[in-house]
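Ticket #4471: structure output looks truncated?

Reporter: J.K.
Steps to reproduce: submitted the chain below (172 residues) through the standard prediction queue, then opened the result file.
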Amino acid sequence: GMTQDDIIIVPEVFKEPPELTIVCGEEQATALKGTYSWEYSNGDGTSTGIEADSMHPLDSKEYMNELPLAYSYKSSVDSFKAHLQFEAAPDEVEIRYWDESCWNDYSAESEELIVQVIEADYVDGGFSTDYTAKLLEGNYIYEVVAKWNSSEDYGGTARYGFYTVMGDYEPV
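Returned output as attached by the reporter:
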């Protein structure tokens, strides 16, 4: 049979942009993957490129997941700090947002939200990149633009959307 030595770990080749989950407090939402431009290696020296066009975030409410926001009862916890959990960490992340009054108003200008990047090196040689952002208090529409350009096996740019709804309840 196979022994442990026969198992070769093959890095995952993403044939489309990785999934993105937004986690804030006790809540989480999978972001809607929108427009993307992607290329991946076929493993034989050739590669496949994909251009996927999607609706604008302001026109995608019925396809998007809402992320409920609530005040944390722990004073040490920032109620609006969100973690962007990608299946594979991108090399660059930008977040834009609109007020909820902008649904279906394509002329509305977006604003940029500050993204914090936390990089960690592990003793075993591993490495991870964590992206966080402080979401706004209230109901907003967000677009995340992520770029992957450091892998030999895949890369590109993808847009993701989600929106927040402010709860008036106290978590218990």
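Triage note (M.O.): checked the attachment and the full token line is present. DSSP finds no helices and twelve strands in the chain.
Status: closed, working as intended.
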